[in-house]
């Protein structure tokens, strides 16, 4: 059994072109990380590729949870968080399968939490300008101004509020009431960060370069952005009225 204090959660739906490559890239890093794939019944047999790697090479380091159908990004991560908390992982990551998040940046997020003492590390596209490669300009503007909008409405000071590349210390996910997280799509990323911020956890944005996927199909759609737009207003109201959990000593 290979041991690690860290687990990287990767949700998948039809990622056969990328999944083996991203797994091998993570496992080639100097520090040992474990990987949990949450697959939503991919008809392209993404899960079969993962299970083959588990059996042949990466037993004890690579894990998979399979779900029936597309149930939403947020619910995939919540399932992964609970899975990780049932085990002894101290650092729990969110990461995409399509190489938009560079595996070489994983140790930098880990260091922000493990060495610098932050509770949440965000791989941020916007903390030092606009660091996005190969995205259509409309998509860049939508993402950038979405984060500006979140900051304006909520008063939340994080530059990249919609980022999906993150490291959490275990105590963050133990404190956040995961069953009360409401959003399933794009707004899930905002809600998790905002909740951690309102509780009082220390957050660091680590500058990264985001590269648009080269293979496979994007899962983004207008409904996801709509959820985020209106969800931010609900988060602002929550910030005034909700009683958030206390950080345990």
Topology:
Elements: E1 6-12, H1 19-27, E2 34-39, H2 46-56, E3 62-66, H3 73-85, E4 91-94, H4 106-114, E5 120-124, E6 132-133, H5 137-154, E7 166-169, H6 170-175, H7 186-199, E8 203-207, E9 210-211, H8 222-241
Parallel strand pairs: 1-2, 1-4, 2-3, 5-8, 6-9
Antiparallel strand pairs: 4-7, 5-7
Helix pairs in contact: 5-8, 7-8
Describe this structure in words.
The chain has 249 residues and is α/β, with parallel strands linked by helices. The protein is 40% helix and 16% strand. The protein is built from eight helices and nine strands. It has helices spanning 19-27, 46-56, 73-85, 106-114, 137-154, 170-175, 186-199, 222-241; strands at residues 6-12, 34-39, 62-66, 91-94, 120-124, 132-133, 166-169, 203-207, 210-211. Helix 5 packs parallel to helix 8 and helix 7 (186-199) packs parallel to helix 8. The longest helix has 20 residues, at 222-241. It is globular and about 50 Å long.
């Amino acid at each position: 059994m290979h041991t690690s204090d860290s687990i990287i959660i990767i949700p998948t739906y039809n990622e056969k072109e990328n999944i083996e490559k991203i797994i091998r890239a993570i496992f080639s890093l100097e520090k040992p990380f474990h990987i949990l794939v949450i697959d939503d019944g991919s008809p392209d047999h993404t899960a079969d590729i993962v299970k083959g790697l588990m059996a042949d090479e990466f037993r004890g380091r690579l894990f998979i949870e399979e779900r029936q159908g597309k149930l939403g990004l947020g619910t995939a991560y919540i399932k992964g968080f609970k899975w990780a908390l049932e085990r002894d992982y101290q650092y729990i990551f969110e990461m995409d399968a399509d190489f938009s998040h560079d595996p070489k940046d994983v140790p930098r997020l880990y260091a922000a939490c493990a060495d610098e003492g932050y509770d949440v590390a965000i791989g941020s596209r916007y903390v030092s300008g606009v660091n996005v490669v190969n995205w259509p300009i409309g998509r860049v503007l939508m993402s950038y101004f979405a984060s500006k909008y979140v900051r304006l409405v909520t008063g939340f000071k994080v530059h990249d509020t919609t980022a999906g590349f993150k490291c959490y210390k275990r105590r963050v996910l133990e404190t956040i009431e995961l069953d009360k997280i409401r959003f399933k799509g794009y707004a899930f990323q905002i809600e998790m960060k905002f909740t951690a911020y309102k509780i009082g956890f220390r957050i660091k944005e680590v500058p990264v370069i985001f590269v648009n996927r080269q293979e496979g199909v994007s899962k983004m759609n207008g409904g996801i952005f709509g959820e985020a737009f209106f969800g931010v207003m609900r988060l602002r109201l929550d910030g005034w009225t909700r009683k958030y959990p206390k950080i345990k000593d």
